[in-house]
Amino acid sequence: MLRPAKEMEGILLVDKPRDHTSHDVVARLRGKLQMRRVGHAGTLDPMATGLLIILVGKATRVSQYLISLDKEYEGTIELGKVTDTQDADGEVMETRPVPPLTEAEVKAAIGGFLGDQYQLPPMYSAIKVDGVPLYRSARKGEEIVREPRFIRVKSWEVTRFASPQIDFRLRCTKGTYVRTLAHDLGQKLGCGAHLAALRRTATEKFTVSQALTLEQIQALTLPEIEKRLIAPRDAVPSIAL
Fold this sequence. Notes:
Layout: E1 10-16, H1 22-33, E2 38-40, E3 49-56, H2 63-67, E4 71-79, E5 81-83, E6 92-95, H3 103-111, E7 115-119, E8 128-129, E9 132-133, H4 134-139, E10 149-162, E11 165-172, H5 178-189, E12 193-203, E13 206-207, H6 214-219, H7 222-228, H8 232-235
Parallel strand pairs: 3-12
Antiparallel strand pairs: 1-3, 2-3, 4-11, 4-12, 5-6, 7-10, 8-9, 10-11, 12-13
């Protein structure tokens, strides 16, 4: 039962576990906080882990501002396998031999993705066309025409190269599909690729090191959780309030 008492208000930083949707996290927190008014600012795919900004109570009004902030990620790309979802959760559609690439060649290819560009959203996404999420059409084997989206890749660094795997660190604008970057890099290298792992490490000044896991949150009392909330005025410019 949801409590009728005065609701909490603020921003809670959560370290999302793998195999949970962003909605799964919101649903669990609604139960823990005994509140309906709980949302998030920026979806993470089920396979991804890391920083999920949770908005509690009236803090949901700053959602659009927080969603618009730049994101930082760390992850792993696997060369040689193309999946239908462009990540490790999908079905392998094609396997290709990986050429004897050097780290310098990989870095040069990645360099071509830096800066402003238009990215074609993947079919397995929640974007709606004529009111229908693309992933529903994808599950039926349908290919829907979709509009490219403007994105900016601010930095993309290789942190480890051990073919067929590439570990990376990425900073990009909102709306960037990291799995599509991985897929497109594979096409550019001629061997195909998919996103094998992804972790959001930061959204502007908020970092995953500040976040709590769901298990840690579950172990806290409601007053203890309330003390961990960030006031909206401390998180966003006054113009956004």
